[in-house]
């Protein structure tokens, strides 16, 4: 690539397939870094709305036209759709040799891009370790997001690193053979945290149902209510303490070896929802084993 004023690579013509939550956000971030998103694909109504919001000056085009116009092609489709998209692009010859093709799937490395790299493209796997909701904060969060990158050689790693740094992220390398484990770690943390907090909110709402506490509003099911205000500082503190101190951050009845309290929790949760009690039991058992809790606690959890 040509140098701009001898300081950095020339700006790239970027194509985005497609304008989902990740693709639209990355496209907007790349434009902020002075690249030009020349075309984007957007099939669903939601994708078209995101393209209009985040990439208002970018034409929406069919996939093959997006691919042929790009010097940097971002494949931001769901993981399950990626193999079909890649094989289709390779079959049509829409991607020009020399094009940088980067996918954003977490569990796949660069091997999946073989149909395109064998045709002369530069293949990269650039995965943002972040959850995207489609809200305005997605773009702001990129500045504190780490990106797992995989490439076939040092030139590829240099390109991926440069792109991530330009949009404000922090790049780190993930081996090709470790991508699935890497992705599992992220999914286990972020996805299951949502379930854990949602379960906790359900139980707390059941505990406070029908009560008016110190003049506050009755507990309801709408997000942002009293239950969320109660759990928010506790959940944030637990997360921050764990990141800072690891297993030493653990508190509560399992850490204390209080088998009676754990048994009481299981009984109370079972009255609300047996599935919720089952989730508590599974999580508490994992916690007890990590914390080397007394056998009495293990016995309560394995009855």
What report would you give on this structure?
The protein has 303 residues and is of the alpha/beta class. The chain has 2 domains: 3-174, 3-Layer(aba) Sandwich (Rossmann fold), CATH 3.40.50; 182-301. The protein has 13 helices and 9 strands. The strands form 2 sheets. A 7-stranded mixed beta sheet has the order 4-3-5-6-7-8-9, with helices on both faces. Strands 1-2 form a two-stranded antiparallel ribbon. β6 (100-103), α5 and β7 (122-128) form a beta-alpha-beta unit. α8 (179-208) packs antiparallel against α9. The longest helix is centred in the middle third of the chain and has 30 residues, at 179-208. The radius of gyration is 24 Å and the shape is elongated. The N and C termini lie far apart (65 Å).
List the helices and strands and how they pair.
Blueprint: E1 3-4, E2 8-9, E3 13-17, H1 21-32, E4 36-41, H2 45-54, H3 63-69, E5 72-75, H4 82-92, E6 100-103, H5 114-117, E7 122-128, H6 137-141, E8 146-151, H7 154-166, E9 170-173, H8 179-208, H9 226-245, H10 253-256, H11 259-272, H12 274-290, H13 295-301
Parallel strand pairs: 3-4, 3-5, 5-6, 6-7, 8-9
Antiparallel strand pairs: 1-2, 7-8
Pfam families: DUF2520, Rossmann-like
Protein name: DUF2520 domain-containing protein
Domain Putative oxidoreductase/dehydrogenase Rossmann-like: 5-128
């Amino acid at each position: 690539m040509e140098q701009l004023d001898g300081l950095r690579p020339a700006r790239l013509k970027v194509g985005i397939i497609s304008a989902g939550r990740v693709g639209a956000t990355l496209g907007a971030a790349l434009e902020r870094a002075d690249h030009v998103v020349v075309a984007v694909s957007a099939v669903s109504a939601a994708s078209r709305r995101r393209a209009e919001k985040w990439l208002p000056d970018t034409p929406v085009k069919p996939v093959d036209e997006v691919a042929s116009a790009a010097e940097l092609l971002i494949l931001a489709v769901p993981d399950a759709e990626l193999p079909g998209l890649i094989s289709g692009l390779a079959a049509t010859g829409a991607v020009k040799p020399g094009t940088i093709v980067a996918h954003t799937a977490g569990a796949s490395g660069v091997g999946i891009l073989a149909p395109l790299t064998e045709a002369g493209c530069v293949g990269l796997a650039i995965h943002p370790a972040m959850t995207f909701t489609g809200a305005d904060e997605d773009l702001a969060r990129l500045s504190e997001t780490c990106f797992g990158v995989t490439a076939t050689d040092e030139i590829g790693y240099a390109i991926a690193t440069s792109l991530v740094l330009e949009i404000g992220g922090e790049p780190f390398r993930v081996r090709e053979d470790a991508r699935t484990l890497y992705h599992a770690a992220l999914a286990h943390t972020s996805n299951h945290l949502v379930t854990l907090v949602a379960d906790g909110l359900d139980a707390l709402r059941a505990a406070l149902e029908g009560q008016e506490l110190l003049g506050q509003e009755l507990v309801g099911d709408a997000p942002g209510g009293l239950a969320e205000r109660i759990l928010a500082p506790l959940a944030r503190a637990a997360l921050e303490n764990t990141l800072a101190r690891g297993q030493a951050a653990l508190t509560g009845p399992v850490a204390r070896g209080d088998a009676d309290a754990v048994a009481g929790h299981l009984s109370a949760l079972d009255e609300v929802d047996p599935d919720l009690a089952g989730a508590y039991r599974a999580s508490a058992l994992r916690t007890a084993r990590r914390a080397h809790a007394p056998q009495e606690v293990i016995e309560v959890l394995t009855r």
